[in-house]
Specification:
With 541 residues, the chain is an alpha/beta fold. It folds into 3 domains: 282 residues, HUPs (Rossmann fold), CATH 3.40.50; 56 residues; 97 residues, Arc Repressor Mutant, subunit A, CATH 1.10.10. The strands form 4 sheets. It has a 5-stranded parallel beta sheet. Strands 5-6-7 form a 3-stranded antiparallel beta sheet, with no helix packed on it. Strand 6 and strand 7 form a beta hairpin. The termini are far apart.
Amino acid sequence: MSALRDAAMNSKAWPFEEARAVLKRYGGKDPAKGYVLFETGYGPSGLPHIGTFGEVARTTMIRRAFEIISDIPTRLICFSDDVDGMRKVPENVPQQEMLRGHMQKPLTSVPDPYGEFESFGHHNNAMLRRFLDTFGFEYEFISATEFYKSGQFDDTLRLAAERYDAIMEIMLASLREERQQTYSCFLPIHPETGRVMYVPMKEVNAKDGTITFDDEDGREWTLPVTGGHVKLQWKPDFGARWAALDVDFEMYGKDHSTNTPIYDGICRVLGGRAPNHMTYELFLDDQGQKISKSKGNGLTIDEWLTYAATESLSYFMYQKPKTAKRMHFDVIPRAVDEYHQQLRAFPEQTVEQQVNNPVWHIHDGKPPESRMVVSFGMLLNLASVAAAKDAAGLWKFIRRYAPEASPETHPDLDAAAGFAVRYFADKIAPTRVFRLPTDMERAAMEDLVARLKKLAQVTDPKNVLPVENRAELLSDEGLQSMVFAVGKEHGFEPLRDWFKALYEVLLGASDGPRFGGFIALYGVDETVALIERALRGELVG
């Protein structure tokens, strides 16, 4: 066994832990179907949100981890339940009134409110695939509409008719008494209206593979369970899909976890083996509410990619999957900087450390070199004082700070500079609140200005005085030590109050970068001018 496989078999990284559990499922034997099947499910009742992406990203990480520890081939299926009836109109799409006229129809029978695709379901499926393709995922897409209509699901549906009582026994035990009276695992699609019907069954004929029911007008209908005339309720559909496809692994949100015994039980009733599962905590918006496709709350994938590269989102998804995640714009800068910290650490790590590094899982074991010589957080603060309109407006400062850097040699830094300008303009500038310094803060800032001016004199190339430690004085650490000393000498306790004052007075925010690094990037003279403007009250109002 290679050193990499050895390390993977002992890694505590959650993708490897899940991959080892899937491998253990077969006890050293190859699956009869010839491959291990990973699946993710998607309900296209609204535009795909970031949680949907997260399932595919995380499942892909487990799939790649599995391919390190095993030679068994793998497949990943993204399954869209687009036969589901539209139960409510999403709040974040156009033509609300038109959509209300198609309630309870399968999503692939509802007109596309955007007028771009065959149906609303087709539109949302296309959006999902576009998002997934942006990240280069390898997957096979299956539409439930095609799955039902093409006959691929027919054998399982006939078996569901034969074992109807066993399925109903599982389902009825989980329902309130009033719901039990009308529940059926089969949902007929009305031959005339095309609506998905929630009606009790008068008969389930296992021999003929048919169901008989009365519609809302009291008319009796008999339909075959095959060929897309009938769909399964969503809980039975979960288990039936696992049985039909022989799924080995599927993850889903915590809100599904109480249904796991139901899904597993129905899968077994239909002759399948329940897959391995992984439940994750939910994604929340800035108010702590669950992200919803119908509400459109929380961050979308497109919104994240407006302000940061794709890899930062993958990094965010990797982190602590069993912890609830608040999805708001302010999580983006930290995700970007932490991702690059891990990239920088990777080359110096042992194989055992590398397989525990998130970037191994994001880049399938081959992470690129980070060229981010300036952090995203620092770029944001530079954007706030440089009045830059684009990345080029930041490069004059970046080049002085890192002369070896250029947009051509540091494309990730160049992209981040553009993202930073956009993020600042959209998300920071509208919320900034500047204030005047207190007397104590003013005295300290005047002292800092005096020291910076003195530093500028001794480091001026025209100055004839030899300064052996010029580079040290102008370094991030040298400047940070100066700022630190000023705060200490002026009696700030705790010292973070001094730095908080600098941020609030100079940047209009309550937190910010290491201030020494900010001075090194922005420039000593420029920082002096910024502080003097603030002391004159020019930044307020």
